[in-house]
Amino acid sequence: MKRFFILAYLLTGAFLAQRVFACTGITLHTVNDQPVTARTIEWAASPLHTMYVVVPRGQEQHSILPDGSMNGKRFTAKYGYVGIAIEETEFIMEGINEAGLGAGLFYFPQYGEYQPYDSAYKDQSVSDMQLVAWILSNFATINEVQTNMNSIRVIGTDPRASTVHWRITEPNGRQVVLEIIDQQVRFYENPLGVLTNSPEFTWHLTNLNNYVNLSAGSVNHRQVGILNLNAFGGGSGLHGLPGDMTPPSRFIRAAFFQSTAPRLGDEDATAMQAFHLLNNFDIPVGIQFADPRQVPSMPSATQVTIVSDLHNQRLFYRTMYDSSIRCIDLRDIDFKRVKFQFAALDTDKRQPIEEIKIR
Q: Coil, strand or helix: which one is 85?
């Protein structure tokens, strides 16, 4: 029952208030059109237990059910994968498999609706928090995911809980958003490569039209009557870009920052660029709560930032405790022989500081 109570805690209460969880996802491309996806993981109420998980080929996995048991769909990993998980090894938030397919989940409160759990279909039932694991275990392409979604029933484990939606990306750059609305599975092509939270993905795309006046660079001086008007500084073409932390505003900012970023020559440089862009979406702890709540052990509500180089199968991450960038290279892993393993992202929860000695 341990997993059930952890999951219920994470997905109820504060999540329904939409004030503590806010994921932002972007996608950059190199000059050779290789995709690099990136995203943040936020949770403002308490420090999450975050870990990397290595799943070998042939690993059997089981889905959690609303009664807390692991008696849902059983599936065996056709592909090995590496993912970043929260609280439990099964709850993969973002990952890459050895075929180069990337997948991640983003919270989607109030707008999604799964089919209700029916014990008659428990062997087909996959918890929403474990769908990324199911995808990475079984498929190399988006088409395969789309074809096989009718073989499972995605379920929530608590009727009070928030729903989620998913981003799936191939190493060739194709990306889709998966949402379950009114109990219907919906796939949307996502050539833009941006994803946040609610409302539904198509609404965010329509909302971009409200900002058709924005552009990179500066606005030229203008004559208004007898007055000459000049911009106060560079970047005035983006004056009016929304700066709050709601999902619609983050989607707009991410779309403009991503679209104006130059294409770089290789995946490593592009991955570092993605980290810099996502610096703009770090959420301070204090702004999430109107009451004077404090979480003294947390330096940030943005607890983990993850970047995935799908072409080279490299997963980068940094955390709120350690802003140095760490990397797991899937090409160095023999997924046929490696053991299932996991480890906390941070053992020392203090930012390393390098002292410069002056003599």
A: strand
Paired tokens of 139? 């498929």
Count CB-CB contacts under 10 A for residue 277. Answer: 20
Give the angle subtended at the CA of 86 by the CAs of 90 and 117, to the nearest 5°: 50
CA distances from 80 to 308, 313, 350 (A): 16, 12, 32
Structural domains of the chain, ranges and CATH numbers in brackets: 2-199+260-344 (3.60.60.10)
Q: Per residue in 29-56, pLDDT tens?
A: 999 999 999 999 998 888 899 999 999 9
Token duo for residue 124: 């087909």
* Distance, CA of 258 to CA of 12 (rounded, Å): 32
- Residue 11: name the closest of 158, 154, 196 by CA: 158
Predicted confidence (pLDDT) per residue in 241-285, tens digit: 999 999 999 999 999 999 999 999 999 999 999 999 999 999 888
Q: 101 near 170, Cβ under 8 Å?
A: yes
The pairing of beta strand 125-127 with beta strand 153-155: parallel
- Looking at residue 88, the DSSP 8-state letter turns out to be S
Report the alpha-carbon distance of residue 80 to residue 6 in Å, rounded: 26
Q: What is the largest CA-CA distance in the chain?
A: 77
Contact 132, 141 (CB under 8 A): no
Q: Give kind and range of the element (H or E) at residue 10.
A: helix 2-11
Asked whether the whole model's pTM tops 0.85, one would answer yes
For residue 224, is it left (φ>0), alpha (ψ between -120 and 50) or beta?
beta
Residues β-bridged to residue 344: 51
Instruction: Retrieve residue 43's tokens.
Output: 């949770």
Under a CB-based contact definition with an 8 Å cutoff, are residues 323 and 340 in contact?
Answer: no
Closest to 36 in 3D by CA, of 282, 276, 289: 276
93 within 8 A of 83, measured Cβ to Cβ: yes
Task: With H, G, I as helix, E, B as strand and everything else as coil, classify residue 125.
Answer: strand
Q: What is the CB-side half-sphere exposure of residue 291 using CA atoms within 13 A?
A: 5
**By C-alpha distance, which of 182, 187, 157 is closest to 169?**
187
